[in-house]
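Protocol step 4 of 6: structure prediction from sequence.
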Amino acid sequence: MWEPSREHGFHALRHFYASEELEAGESVVSLARWLGDSDPGFTLRTYSHFLPRASARGTAAIDAVFA
């Protein structure tokens, strides 16, 4: 039997939305405003662990500078 939990429903959708927006390069200030978070730092701390490709983008950017 299915029971509601934080891993399902609106909470999971919020995490998915936030991580996809950050991954796409959206401003954390704008995202925090959209989510109703008063502190963009909180938004970044809460959702940044969902960005596994972030370090690869940073490395590629530095490599492009020196190429």
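Step 5 (inspection) to follow. Helices lie at 10-23, 28-35, 40-47, 54-66.
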